[in-house]
Amino acid sequence: MPAIRWTDSGAPPGPQTLAWVTADLERARSVTPGDPEIEELLGELAGRRIDRPDFRGEALAHFARAIAQRPTSPYTWAAVADARYRKGDTGPAFETALRRAAELGPAEPEVQRTLIDIGLAQWDRLPEPMRQELRKALAQSMERYPFKTLPIVSRHGHLEMACPYVAGDARLARTSWPRRCQLQPPK
C-alpha cells in the first residue's frame, strides 16, 4: 500500500502534527548536523505554520541554511522563491531565487511548476530575462506534463502562452484545451 501524504487528504496538517514532526526533525538535525535535506524539510514545515506570525521568516532561515549546505539544489531555490512570494517579498532576492531554480532545475517538473506558478503571478513585475527563463520552463513543462501545467497557466490568465504547445499535442486532442485555446483572444 502506498504511503498516504498530507497533501493526498486535502487537509493541511494541524499545529500539533507540525510541532511533533518539527521536533523529530530537530532531533535528526542534532544527530546529522549539516544535512541540507533536514533544513529544507524544517523550512517546508515552518512555511505551513500559519498559526504563527513569524513562520515565513523561520522558513526562509531554514532554506538559507539548506542553500549554504547545498547551493545547487533547484528544489531549495524554488522553495525560497515560493516563501518570498508568500511573504510578499518579490524584490531582488525573490528574482535571484527564481533565476537560480530555473538555472539548476530545467529537468525537474516540480521546480518548473513552482516557477511557472509564482512567476506568472508576478509576470507583469518581472524583468524580461526572467520572463525568458519562465518561458523555457513553460515549454519544458508543457512537453512533459501538459495536464499539470495547463491549469496553472490558465489560473493565472496566461493560457495564450501555453496554446502554441497544445495544438500539436496528440495527448490533448480529445480534451477541452484545444477549444479553449481557439477561444483565447490574442494578447
Description:
- The protein has 187 residues and is mainly alpha-helical.
- The chain has two domains: 1-71, no CATH class; 94-187, no CATH class.
- Helix content is 69%, strand content 0%.
- The chain contains eleven helices and no strands.
- α3 (36-47) runs antiparallel to α4 (55-69), α5 (74-87) packs antiparallel against α6 (92-104) and α8 (128-144) crosses α10.
- The radius of gyration is 18 Å and the shape is elongated.
- It starts with 5 loop residues before the first helix and ends in a 5-residue tail after the last helix.
- The model has no long low-confidence stretch (mean pLDDT 89).
Overall shape: elongated
Helix share, percent = 55-70%
Structural class: mainly alpha
Strand portion: under 5%
Biggest beta sheet attributes: none
Radius of gyration using CA atoms only:
18 Å
Task: Count up the helices.
Answer: 11
Give the end-to-end Cα distance, rounded to a whole number of Å. Answer: 48 Å
Sequence stretches where pLDDT stays below 50 over 5 or more residues: none
Count of structural domains: 2
SSE arrangement, N to C: HHHHHHHHHHH
How many individual β-strands?
Answer: 0
Any descriptors?
mainly alpha, elongated, 69% helix, single chain, 187 residues, 2 domains
How would you concisely characterize the structure shown here?
This protein has 187 residues and is mostly helical. Helices cover 69% and strands 0% of the residues.
Secondary-structure blueprint:
Blueprint: H1 6-9, H2 15-31, H3 36-47, H4 55-69, H5 74-87, H6 92-104, H7 109-121, H8 128-144, H9 146-155, H10 159-166, H11 177-182
